[in-house]
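Incident log, structure service

09:12 report received: a user says their structure output differs between two submissions of the same chain.
09:20 pulled the input from the user's history:
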Amino acid sequence: MLRTLAHDTIIFDWTKLIPKSALRCLPAIAIPLIVGISTGHPRYGLMAAAGAFTVGFGTFQELRGSRTAPLWAAAIGMCVSSWIGSVAGHSNLSIILISALWGFLYGTVWNLSPSIAWTALQCVIWLVISTAYPQNGLQALERGTFMLLGGLLQIAIILIVRRVTGKMNPVLGGSGTPEEYAIVSHALGADHGMRLQAFRAAIVLAVSAAAYRYLALPNGYWIPMTAAIVMRPTFVQTFQRGLARILGTLAGAVVATVIASLLRPQPWILVTLVLFFVWACFMVIFVNYALFAICLTAYVVFVLALAGLPETGLIAQRTINTLLGGGIAWIVHTAFAPLELFQERMSLSRSAQ
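09:34 re-ran on a clean worker, output below:
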């Protein structure tokens, strides 16, 4: 039982270590960072690099036989979600409501296929992040647009590398089959349990967004972001992902603290550290989730340090907010568990008749 609950933490599949594939995703992240710092506009470089970083994970996905569809869907979806989040960020109520809506939509589609679930999750993440940076007028389009540009750069480089070398990253994220789409389509129309999952996802995002706004913790948007990331269709999956995320974040905080204290990194050293941990994130994402969370935490700390935020404060903030986000996802899922179990038994009873 313990091994099952700690699956994402203690199980390492080293056959899925992909150092060469990870390298193909680095140029689109390095270029915006270098250009941004060199021209005195690091913030724009960071936004574009963030888009390229996220879209890079789409190179390991496949959607209905297409290797580029997940890339385009993620780039466009994140851009639009970021625009909406920037506008919604002016009001606590609008943040809670729009987060709940995006959570409901995510919970509705996460069983369709791994690629669709991954794309929907990126949209939720960037909606939440953008609410922390509210803007008016055309400025509300800034973050999403630069992210889109970074995503498009990643797509262009990936396609060029594919054309020149004839190689593409392996499909490790998975793809849905027509049979799976038909099953889920029927379930959405007839099974209350499927709709209950979507409603639970909406509650998780609403509660975590409310905690983020009303607790007013520094970088509090990490609370709903973490809650969305660890949330899964079943409680065991949610517990597995949440435990791995929390332990990986704690370990990553230690790693980032040690590096920061030893190197006291300046901008170009920070760029090097960011690119190293980006490469590590891509390389181990399918090996072990806790290991990925270690690399991701270090990446986030150093990329925000490039934006001028102190590493030590970021480490403590990320740790606290990750604990809160994971805890909210667990608590809400626990509260829904009896109702979901009842719905499952009712579905089985109807099927047996």
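09:41 both user submissions now match this output. Likely a transient worker issue. Closing.
09:42 reviewer note: The first helix runs from residue 2 to 5. The mean pLDDT is 86.
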